[in-house]
Amino acid sequence: MHHSLTRKEIVPFAVQFGSLVLATAVVDLVLHRAGLVAVGRWLGIPGTLLILLSFLYSLRKRRLLRQGRLVTFLRAHEILAWVGTLMILVHAGIHIYTVLPWLALLAMLVNVASGMTGTYLLARSRDHLAARRGHYAQQGLADAEVDRQLFRDATSYELMKKWRAVHLPITVVFAGLALAHIVSIFMFWGWR
């Protein structure tokens, strides 16, 4: 079990998070070598917009949007948040001179790590439900009864509920710090 957990969840998580860090370093290096360091300064805006766009998944999940498949919105959420985070990391670089942007950046990284954790917990939840479906089918239950039992299992499976209870406050803290950073830019530095 320990080796399976490491192979199925821990290593892919580390690779995914590491690829974000590596991609940031590569893009930053390319911008520096090309003499386009100023481009990085402006990547915060499209990065923020991509992250905001990724929240369409939350609207779809809560049925505030009715069109589209939920799984498509989830994949778009993951990709948009990853690319938006990459842009913001390049935007931040090592050129942060005050505490607020560092706090916002740290909160963003914690939020990304939490979101990536949710991806693996969701896969674990699906595996659990698939195993339960097989168990109920072996018992000879009718399809309608299997679906009823699975619904009960899905609503009582606590793993995702516990994760959401952690991820949402992390997201709110990140959003608050990011908003404070953006407001401070307008208040103290303007659009120089």
Q: What's the arrangement of secondary structure elements?
A:
Blueprint: H1 2-33, H2 37-42, H3 44-54, H4 56-61, H5 70-92, H6 99-138, H7 143-156, H8 158-189
Task: Provide the descriptors you would attach to this structure in a database record.
192 residues; 8 helices
Could you explain the architecture of this structure?
This protein is an all-alpha fold. It contains eight helices and no strands. The chain folds into two domains: 95 residues, no CATH class; 96 residues. α1 crosses α5 and α6 runs antiparallel to α7. The longest helix has 40 residues. The termini are far apart. The mean pLDDT is 86.
In terms of structural class, how would the helical and strand content be classed?
A: mainly alpha
**Percent helix range:** over 70%
Strand proportion, as a percent range, falls in under 5%
Envelope shape? elongated
CA(first)-CA(last) distance: 56 Å
Sequence stretches where pLDDT stays below 50 over 5 or more residues = none
What is the arithmetic mean of pLDDT? 86
How many discrete domains?
2
Order of helices and strands: HHHHHHHH
Figure out the total of helices: 8
CA gyration radius, whole angstroms: 20 Å
Q: Summarize the biggest pleated sheet.
A: none
Would you count the extended β strands for me? 0
